[in-house]
């Protein structure tokens, strides 16, 4: 019934949702037979369904390298995320993790749920890593080493200043951008992108996640995880956790808007990076997450619900973004659309209102000046089209039966 209700509220989502469901079923059918690759791709679906969807568009050789790269970094991140591991044990693991990926006999059990399975059976990832080409291995090892060192540094260091914030995000995600650019170049399909643009691609995604995940991180047990920089939140509260209380809602939203405005500074670099890509599959792989990021920022901006629960794009809208992102004109259109959705939310009383407007205007100007932004119906704007609700319900029912039968085969 939940799916029927969602489709009735947003009938334009129906076809993209159907396509996404078919694509996910196709992924399951394409999982390789070898045990280590079967584990790698199955685990990829468990730890990131959205990433599993976009990675399948890459060619086999590059897809394998990116899959292993992602799982290695997820494993490294699992070690960093596990707050139950004592610092004196965690730091050496982070610093030496780039060496452990060559050792198929070593593992360190930590994490929970799917991440614990990843760590317990990490030897499968190591076996897959050892089958990659040398240039892929070197790129993955280099980024893993640099990321592990950065994570170790911030275990004993708070995110105090905006410079700290950028540095942390560089280690957590900017390096992922650099690593992916290295893998794309190693495949022979792309020129090597400038580090500054690759870094911005990662920072835009990481800052969006940090903003969106405020409540989850601050409520982390046994210890809160605090990634919002003190230089920003201290202007609005005495303690970062105070922002989640209802009596502080006005200041909390202003702090939120401050950080969204900060994240928007990377959008133009992301557009420049994406516009330089030549391979259509690499382009879609990179573009879809960036559109999801600016879409999420537009939803989070001026939204007190960030401090009450999880704010994210609905599944149908995600499906539409994935379905409609095929060329750079689509990226410019989506960035323009989402910027236009954020713009009316700017309150003149907000301390950063003028700066936010300046950032939004810069993004829209970049989209317009590309010459690729055609007059468009805002496919991301909520609209209500008159559909036959009985017909839609029947179609959804048939789809449910179809996929239920498929799953039994």
From TrEMBL:
<dbReference type="GO" id="GO:0045338">
    <property type="term" value="P:farnesyl diphosphate metabolic process"/>
</dbReference>
<keyword id="KW-0808">Transferase</keyword>
<dbReference type="InterPro" id="IPR006449">
    <property type="entry name" value="Squal_synth-like"/>
</dbReference>
<keyword id="KW-0812">Transmembrane</keyword>
<keyword id="KW-1133">Transmembrane helix</keyword>
<dbReference type="InterPro" id="IPR019845">
    <property type="entry name" value="Squalene/phytoene_synthase_CS"/>
</dbReference>
<dbReference type="InterPro" id="IPR002060">
    <property type="entry name" value="Squ/phyt_synthse"/>
</dbReference>
<dbReference type="GO" id="GO:0051996">
    <property type="term" value="F:squalene synthase [NAD(P)H] activity"/>
</dbReference>
<dbReference type="GO" id="GO:0010287">
    <property type="term" value="C:plastoglobule"/>
</dbReference>
<dbReference type="Pfam" id="PF00494">
    <property type="entry name" value="SQS_PSY"/>
</dbReference>
<dbReference type="InterPro" id="IPR044844">
    <property type="entry name" value="Trans_IPPS_euk-type"/>
</dbReference>
<comment type="similarity">
    <text>Belongs to the phytoene/squalene synthase family.</text>
</comment>
<dbReference type="GO" id="GO:0005789">
    <property type="term" value="C:endoplasmic reticulum membrane"/>
</dbReference>
<feature type="transmembrane region" description="Helical">
    <location>
        <begin position="385"/>
        <end position="405"/>
    </location>
</feature>
<protein>
    <recommendedName>
        <fullName>squalene synthase</fullName>
        <ecNumber>2.5.1.21</ecNumber>
    </recommendedName>
</protein>
<dbReference type="InterPro" id="IPR033904">
    <property type="entry name" value="Trans_IPPS_HH"/>
</dbReference>
<dbReference type="GO" id="GO:0008610">
    <property type="term" value="P:lipid biosynthetic process"/>
</dbReference>
<dbReference type="InterPro" id="IPR008949">
    <property type="entry name" value="Isoprenoid_synthase_dom_sf"/>
</dbReference>
<keyword id="KW-0472">Membrane</keyword>
């Amino acid at each position: 019934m939940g799916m029927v209700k969602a489709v009735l509220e947003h009938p334009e989502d129906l076809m993209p949702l159907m396509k996404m469901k078919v694509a996910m079923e196709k992924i399951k059918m394409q999982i390789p037979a070898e045990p280590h690759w079967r584990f790698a791709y199955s685990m990829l679906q468990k730890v990131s369904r959205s990433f599993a969807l976009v990675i399948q568009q890459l060619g086999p050789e590059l897809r394998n390298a990116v899959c292993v790269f992602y799982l290695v970094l997820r494993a490294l991140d699992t070690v960093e995320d596990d707050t139950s591991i004592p610092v004196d044990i965690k730091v050496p693991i982070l610093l030496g993790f780039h060496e452990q990926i060559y050792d198929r006999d070593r593992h360190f059990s930590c994490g929970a749920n799917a991440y614990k399975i990843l760590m317990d059976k990490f030897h499968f990832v190591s076996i897959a890593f050892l089958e990659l080409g040398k240039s892929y291995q070197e790129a993955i090892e280099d980024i893993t080493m640099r990321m592990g060192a950065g994570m170790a540094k911030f275990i004993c260091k708070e995110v105090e200043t905006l410079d700290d914030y950028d540095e942390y995000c560089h280690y957590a995600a900017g390096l992922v951008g650099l690593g992916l650019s290295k893998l794309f170049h190693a495949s022979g399909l792309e020129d090597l992108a400038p580090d500054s643009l690759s870094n911005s691609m990662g920072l835009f995604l990481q800052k969006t996640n940090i903003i969106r995940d405020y409540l989850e991180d601050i409520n982390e047990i046994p210890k809160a995880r605090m990634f919002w920089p003190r230089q920003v939140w201290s202007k609005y509260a005495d303690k970062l956790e105070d922002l989640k209380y209802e009596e502080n809602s006005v200041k909390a939203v202003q702090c939120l808007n401050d950080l969204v405005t900060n994240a928007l500074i990377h959008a133009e670099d992301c557009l420049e990076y994406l516009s330089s890509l030549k391979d259509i599959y690499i382009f879609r792989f990179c573009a879809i997450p960036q559109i999801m990021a600016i879409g999420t920022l537009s939803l989070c901006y001026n939204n007190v619900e960030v401090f009450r629960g999880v704010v994210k794009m609905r599944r149908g809208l995600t499906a539409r973004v994935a379905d409609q992102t095929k060329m750079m004109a689509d990226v410019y259109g989506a960035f323009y659309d989402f910027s236009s959705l954020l713009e009316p939310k700017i309150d003149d009383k907000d301390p950063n209102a003028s700066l936010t407007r300046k950032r939004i205007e810069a993004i829209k100007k970049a989209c317009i000046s590309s010459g690729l932004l055609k007059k468009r119906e805002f496919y991301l704007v909520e609209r209500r089209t008159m559909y036959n609700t009985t017909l839609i319900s029947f179609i959804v029912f048939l789809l449910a039966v179809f996929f239920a039968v498929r799953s039994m085969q």
